[in-house]
Amino acid sequence: MKRLKPSLVFIFLVMPCSLLVAFTYYPAIKSLFSSFWNQGTSRRPSKFVGLENYQTLLADDVLAQILWNNALYALVTIPISIGLSIGMALLVNSKIKGTSLMRLSFFLPTMLPMIAVANIWLFFYAPGIGLISQIMQYFGFEPINFLGDASTSLWSMIVVAIWKESGLFMIFYLAALQAVPANLKEAAKIEGASGIQVFFDVVLPLLKPTTIFVAVNALINSFRLIDHVIVMTEGGPNNSSALLLYYIYEVTFAYRDFAYGSALTVFLVALLGLMALFQFKILDKKAHYQ
Predict the structure, then answer these.
(1) Sequence spans of domains, the chain
(2) Choosing a second label site near 137 at 20 to 30 A (CA), which of 202, 228, 249, 282?
(3) SS3 89
(4) pTM reported for the whole predicted model
(5) Partners of 48 in the β-ladder
(6) CA separation (Å) from 110 to 49, 105, 241, 290?
(7) Which residues pair with 37 in a beta bridge?
(8) What is the largest CA-CA distance in the chain?
(9) Which CATH homologous superfamily contains domain 52-284?
(10) Between 286 and 104, where is the model more confident?
(11) Closest-CA residue to 263 (of 108, 57, 35)
């Protein structure tokens, strides 16, 4: 058996593992350790407080509102993004003309940087002078301050997230559709199944592994969004559009409370881990891999 050269071992094994430890495992362990201490100052060193930061977390009314915002954000963006991405994948996988242009158009929002996307939609949402306001005024409606109104700010960000993520998920579904055996669809059609029946009875069950992967990634994305919040609303008005990662950023770097920020970070990691485990356990049992 031929042994790998030490240089290749270093490049393909040691370096990736070192980066993983340095930028993933060490910060996670450091956050967990820091969450059991209070915030020290130049005159008062930090001391061990046990679960005090987690008790503060349980009594945090702002956190409760933000968790509701994040839950609503995830419950709306994930199913709509998955549904749209499947529809777009079916469309670009068909034999109609212009599928190459459609693929580019659908995937283009995904290639744009998050900050650029947020600034584009700021122009759309700007009250009075924005594109949406001008269209509303043209049809006789009063313009709405989408990002400045507590009842519309979160929904406005949800629209942006769906617009940006659907194109990315479309790529995964397109690859999955192209891997579906043609003989299964042909056999179903010979048995008299319509196109809709072929999709729901043959194609859709074979897309479930892809749906599990997409759903888990969409869930993680919904809890790690921060760029759009900073650029578009800064969590306002009155925390109506604040999400969990933005709240962690605000507590840690704006209020300089690193101890409570560490506790919030541990809470976020644990929450995402539990939800991802639940998704894998529930959905994986109903997935067809062959």
Answers:
(1) 52-284
(2) 228
(3) helix
(4) 0.86
(5) 37
(6) 44, 10, 22, 30
(7) 48
(8) 81
(9) MetI-like (1.10.3720.10)
(10) 104
(11) 35
